[in-house]
Amino acid sequence: xxxxxxxxxxxxxxxxPDYRTPxxxxxxxxxxxxxxxxxxxxxxxxxxxxxxTLDRLVAEAVDGNLDVATASARVREARASYRxxxxxxxxxxxxxxxxxxxxxxxxxxxxxxxxxxxGPSSSVGSDGTSGLYQAGFDASWELDxxxxxxxxxxxxxxxxxxxxxxxxxxxxxxxGDVASSYVEARGYQARIVLARRTATSQDETTKIxxxxxxxxxxxxxxxxxxxxxxxxxxxxxxxxxxxxxxAVHRLSVLTGRPPAALSAxxxxxxxIPAPKLPVPAGIPADVLLxxxxxxxxxxxxxxxTARIGQAEAALYPSVSLAGNIATSGTKxxxxxxxxxxxxxxxxxxxxxxxxxxxxxxxVEIAQAQRDQQFLAYQTxxxxxxxxxxxxxxxxxxxxxxxxxxxxxxxAYRQAASLSQTLYxxxxxxxxxxxxxxxxxxxxxxxxxxxRVRIVSDYIALNKALGGGWDGEVDTLTPEVxxxxxxxxxxxxxxxxxxxx
Length: 500
Prior knowledge:
500 residues, alpha+beta, elongated
């Protein structure tokens, strides 16, 4: 009883370090100049691209993406692991019933695995057979003296948090990938339209040159150059169509469907989405709260800290209570009579004396793993800060580049129009026309690519700030619904020849 009393006094004791959220220094502001410091508007950031098709695809991807389903299953696993850890804090009770008939000498009246504590002897019949019926309950309870089980529950709780943050991280990546693939697809469509329009215009130039050649005002070299330039422009179209198809296939798979499933939905070209700029970026410390990968790393650090206590508890004594109550009789009617009831109850003390240093090594392993998780947390913070800085710089510089390209495109469009007019009137050489058309096509194509890049940088910035899916995700429904899980006839056993 003294052992039980001490166990009760130590019931709230726990060994190992208690977790404290680390305080990491972060810059007071982003290094870019002219950046809004208002808190970033992260919820449903993709809707600010004002594209209903994109909104639809994001919702479908959240419902159908296989990575999201996998992360949801890990959430269910973590929650079940927590319930399993909590169960270790409670007593366990098991029922056992038995009935035996025996014949021959040396028949014991005790059931296998249970001592005979004074129960009735088997009565031997005239034919030499004896019967014995037993029923009882076994109970055990490990007194968590030094908090090993409580630390396990703590670690499992952190595991739930980590699985939730992992799901958020998967959703963040998914939404960003869907938006990026969609914008790329629209960009390739716009470039295909541009290439076809430019090739058609160059075909008209070729026709004019052919007419001038027939009239003797142009050379065969001019016609060859015009034909070659139109063909060169058309040769770009298959490459762009391939890139477009790859983007559509990737987008279809992200939504959990076959690669060509979205071909009909996206077949009609639409404008490249344009974000509203500038984007509020907040302050660097915000990413500690908004980035799911940072929060995931912090939860894993907390979980590894709790596991140190689990390992240290094994260095100390452990106490468990075990008991049983049983009734036995040579007839079913004898069960439950006072004369046939037996019971036992008592504590068991286990003290580690010598184990070759294994338990201490386990503590050191847990401490080293904790250090690794702490360093991983620090790395995730630095990576998050870098991602935001990179996106801010890239977005700002691409905006400047796009404005320059717009000016260049306007100038080349005027030059192409003037060169065509002068060429028709015979006041300009055909080389001027070719140069102007080639320059205009290059500038327009570069401007389209820059617009895609601006949207891609906008997406990257929102991802870096921690913007992802903020709606509900079903983490309760299993992907595989089992049937006939209760007792049922087993199927035939198939033996392979190699195993016989």
